[in-house]
Fold this protein.
Amino acid sequence: MSQQNQPPKKIRVGLVFGGRSGEHEVSLTSAKGIMQAMDPARYEIVPIGITKAGQWLTGENIHQRLIEAAAGHPVLAHTTAVAEPSPESRLALPISETGPLDVIFPVLHGPFGEDGTVQGFLELVGLPYVGAGVTASAVGMDKALCKRIFEAHGLPILPYRVFLRRQWRSQPETVLDVCEAGLTYPMFVKPANLGSSVGVHKAKNRDDLRTGLADAAQYDRKVVVEQGIEAREIEVSVLGNDDPIASVPGEIIASREFYSYAAKYIDNSSELLIPAPLSPAQTEQARQLAVAAFQALDAAGLARCDFLLDKADGRLYLNEINTMPGFTPISMYPKLWEASGLTYSELIDRLIELALERFDDKQQSKTTFDVDQAE
Ligand SMILES: Nc1ncnc2c1ncn2[C@@H]1O[C@H](COP(=O)(O)OP(=O)(O)O)[C@@H](O)[C@H]1O
Ligand SMILES: [Mg+2]
């Protein structure tokens, strides 16, 4: 019997999208783009939605059902405790209703998706998935921890201070003094674990700093205050596992004073320059630093590394790493790959391959220990 006439078995991809973060809508657009770009001869796509309230959906018309579920829902930073569904019903994740899946593409941005929580669930159930593992996702999401890792690897970052909400609320004047002793205005205040610039403030004086800290501390128990600079915003896409490669750099020209929530999602008029108009040396430096940041974090699959380029002296600072960057066909991450010679659908193929490769690599680790040979 020849098997040659049999079409190759399709890879069943669980595409998880939506989610409990402020980037819910971006995720919907990313998922739509991915669905349209994946070769139906090679893949069977199984859509899996997560509502803003955290309910998992499988079956037909997921996009439509998510949009309906979101109607009337307030703009999210993220959701933690919501009445519906209950934590118990969230445990009954309908992933078991989908039939066997070969790989999961969790195209979820921000808290409860990009931060290691979904990755931890996928580790528990033993499924390969696209993107960084639990640790890199969690650390990548936490601006305070991420800076510590970058520092430890000698990567250039701007001076910063970290405060707990408890410190801010009990000794606000001391917190302000510590900031003023170590940093100069303008300063940037950010909740440690968020995204989309939610809760991010540019403080030009002590009053601004006070207002910014008060607001940022509403979103997180940990807040970062950072040296502000007049900066160009440079981004580099990284792709790979143990041997990652970097795209050409791109640049964002923000439509507001900085790349705020409004500039990202309301104005829709921020501009992307691809490739970024940089000198060859700056281009090379950005690409090398992006790969170094990816490796410092032990990321996997994909990440977008964002830089601030000091307009005053041309120095490049790492700002943050996003382990599940926006993935719509017009997002920076895939656009940078397109400019580097990899189309949107080739990029998706490669990410699926990398997910399977990394899963295999993990399977190779010994999982038993022979007590008789213990020293
Ligand atoms: N230290 C800084 N100096 C100048 N601009 C900054 C600084 N930190 C942040 N910004 C501006 O604020 C935006 C959002 O900050 P970022 O750290 O990227 O948070 P998010 O994770 O929400 O994207 C940046 O894209 C940039 O425009
Ligand atoms: Mg950012």
